[in-house]
């Protein structure tokens, strides 16, 4: 800590700011930090600014979450025109530490902790240097923005860094003997007492009410905020466990619709699920125009393969790859950590496997149920009722004509001024030869040389 009087300066500065009679906003940040959370934080900050709020208190208790979500929240808090306070209610770990450092002041409960912000995968292995470097500088610049120690912030991210010593708020020297995280090979995670000594936190309080009393705001109007139903829905739909399910149901519904006549319930359900999947990811910033372009291009290639290009080859496979790539990009986000990649791979795999299994089960069992018969009624078309698949080629038997192309053994012929596709009985007939129609086999005209 370069300035031992920093804490006193913050208190004096805060007392001037808190002279207004605006309300105090309470914002809970609990559980996993996901991409739906920044929209809630932004809404509350905007409302607080419009109402000339006195202060916004973020009640933090989290083990972390998505880095991209945390950086968005950090930017929102730093740009806030209202004074912000982080109340670390037990823990602000990983992404939670970044959010706490972005606030103007930090207060912690007894026995709380803050730090351990390195990026790891689900097996606990350290992320690549690219990810670590990004997170390290995010933490450092955020700490500097609020006059906190850059060295402590970076050592929360990278265990390869070490701190020889720091002066605490009382001017005493702290070394690795006092703070284990100062040593190389150790990440910094600070207890409440250490955070206060190092100037990371401004004090230790049991409850938010105690913080307000300390700041002289105990009689100010309190506003407790919570997520709206739409924000809760978006967070639910973008959950790494739920998103692949909607993706699977969407693909299955469209597959069922393609195999069924007309347009009905399967298509409506499929489009609804995909709309919820894409819409929610688009709203929270997990999807942008790049993913939309890949998705539409993939669908176009698949339709081209089905409707225009015969067989199923490069065009169709390319379309499928592009569609799945767009799904994958939506699941990983802007600044993916190893855990985000893992969840994206697992989510996409689960979605594909689930769709295939459900499709097989559906086509093995559902067509035989009464519900299927009601949804897609089927009535046989009997010849006795006048139905036929014949094209009327029987009327041509005995008629003569000429070959337009060589018959090898099939080709084109001209009969009574019209062109038809015809087939010989296996022998080769050159073009411009006289032929006669001597039979019809399943709407295939059979001819022989005269």
TrEMBL record:
It is found in: Membrane. InterPro entries: ClpP/crotonase-like_dom_sf, Membrane_assoc_protease, NA-bd_OB-fold, NfeD-like_C, NfeD1b_N, NfeD_membrane. It holds the Pfam family NfeD_membrane. Residues 394-449 form the NfeD-like C-terminal domain. Keywords: Membrane, Transmembrane, Transmembrane helix. Residues 242-364 form the NfeD integral membrane domain. It is a multi-pass membrane protein. One of its GO terms (cellular component) is plasma membrane. The chain crosses the membrane at residues 263-286, 292-309, 341-363. Residues 24-221 form the NfeD1b N-terminal domain. This is Uncharacterized protein. The lineage of its organism: unclassified sequences, metagenomes, ecological metagenomes.
């Amino acid at each position: 800590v370069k300035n031992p009087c920093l804490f006193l300066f913050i208190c004096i500065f805060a007392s001037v700011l808190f002279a207004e009679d605006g309300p105090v906003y309470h914002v809970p940040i609990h559980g996993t930090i996901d991409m739906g959370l920044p929209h809630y934080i932004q809404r509350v900050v905007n409302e607080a600014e419009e109402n000339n709020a006195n202060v916004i208190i973020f009640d933090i208790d989290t083990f972390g979450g998505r880095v991209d979500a945390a950086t968005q929240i950090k930017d929102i808090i730093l740009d806030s025109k209202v004074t912000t306070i982080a109340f670390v209610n037990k823990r602000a770990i990983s992404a939670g530490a970044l959010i706490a450092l972005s606030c103007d002041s930090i207060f912690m409960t007894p026995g709380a902790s803050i730090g351990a912000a390195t990026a790891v995968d689900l097996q606990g292995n350290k992320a690549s240097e690219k990810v670590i470097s990004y997170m390290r500088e995010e933490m450092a610049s955020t700490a500097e923005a609020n006059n906190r120690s850059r060295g402590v912030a970076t050592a929360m991210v990278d265990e390869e860094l070490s701190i020889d010593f720091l002066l605490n708020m009382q001017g005493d020297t702290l070394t690795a003997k006092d703070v284990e995280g100062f040593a190389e090979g150790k990440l910094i995670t600070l207890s409440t007492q250490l955070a206060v000594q190092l100037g990371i936190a401004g004090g230790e309080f049991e409850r938010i009410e105690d913080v307000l009393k300390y700041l002289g705001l105990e009689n100010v109007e309190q506003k407790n905020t919570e997520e709206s139903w739409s924000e809760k829905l978006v967070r639910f739909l973008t959950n790494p466990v739920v998103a692949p399910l909607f993706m699977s149901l969407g693909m299955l519904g469209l597959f069922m619709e393609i195999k069924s006549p007309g347009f009905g319930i399967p298509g409506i359900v499929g489009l609804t699920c995909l709309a919820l999947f894409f819409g929610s990811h688009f709203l929270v910033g997990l999807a942008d125009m790049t993913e939309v372009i890949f998705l539409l291009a993939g669908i176009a290639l698949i339709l081209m393969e089905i409707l225009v290009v015969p067989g199923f080859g490069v065009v169709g496979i390319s379309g499928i790859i592009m569609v799945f790539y767009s799904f994958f990009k939506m699941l990983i986000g802007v600044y993916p950590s190893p855990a985000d990649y893992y969840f994206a791979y697992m989510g996409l795999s689960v979605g594909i496997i689930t769709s295939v299994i459900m499709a097989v089960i559906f086509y093995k069992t559902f067509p035989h149920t009464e519900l299927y018969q009601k949804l897609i009624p089927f009535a046989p078309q009997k010849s006795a009722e006048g139905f036929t698949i014949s094209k009327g080629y029987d009327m041509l038997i005995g008629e003569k004509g000429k070959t337009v192309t060589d018959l090898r053994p099939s080709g084109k012929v001209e009969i009574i001024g019209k062109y038809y596709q015809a087939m010989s009985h296996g022998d080769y007939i050159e073009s411009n030869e006289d032929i006669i129609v001597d039979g019809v086999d399943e709407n295939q005209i059979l001819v022989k040389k005269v």
